[in-house]
Amino acid sequence: MRADEAMEQIAVCETVYRYALGIDTRDWTLYRSIFADEVDIDFSSYNGRAASRMKADDWVAQVRPLFTGLAATQHSMSNPIVTVSGDRATCQMYMQAAHALDHGDDDNWFTIGGYYDDRLVRFHGRWRIDAVTLTVLWRRGREPIMAIASERGTAMIRDA
User: Fold this and answer.
1) SS3 of residue 143 by DSSP
2) What total of structural domains would you count in the chain?
3) 147: three-class secondary structure by DSSP
4) SS3 for 26?
């Protein structure tokens, strides 16, 4: 592999890693910055909802209440497989996402594992995600905390 090819693959991975960093640090500006203006979202293996294309701003607004309502999260990603072809790229990466409603209560955790399939485009020299597909392979813990967190986060944002 040529050095420039390796650098492109690293740049793609760093964009995908910023997905996790933005969510986990609740840095919504960072999180929004990694997406193209419109994005295909397919989380059907997680929530059963059909895939959809939406504005990235709408996607960020949709996930913000859930993550605002959680006490902590950690999205770990590994084993990236990247393919770059001109101004388009794909990245498949294992993921594990831990969600805590309350820090000190072991009964208030929910974790999923699986992988992301991301499609990216180069826009003004930077890689941006224009499609995310989550494939969940396993779940552990109390999934109902996610609905509680979403309600809690909606109230926190409204009252801020």
Assistant:
1) coil
2) 1
3) helix
4) coil
Local structure of 50: helix, strand or coil: coil
Query: Domain of 21: which CATH number?
Result: 3.10.450.50
Helices (H), 48-96: 56-69
Shortest CA distance to 36 belongs to which of 100, 141, 121, 95? Answer: 121
Chain segment 64-92, per-residue pLDDT in tens: 999 999 999 999 999 999 999 999 999 99
Please give the average per-residue pLDDT across 21-37, as a whole number.
98
Stretch 55-62: mean pLDDT = 98
CA angle 32, 35, 41 (to 5 degrees): 105
What's the token pair of residue 40?
Answer: 């295909």
Residue 128: C-alpha distances to residues 79, 120, 150 (Å) = 20, 5, 27
SS3 of 33, please? helix
Model pTM score: 0.93
**Residue 105 belongs to domain spanning:** 3-159
State the chain's maximal CA–CA distance in angstroms: 52
Q: In what order do the strands lie in the sheet with 72-85?
A: 52-55, 35-42, 126-141, 109-123, 88-100, 72-85
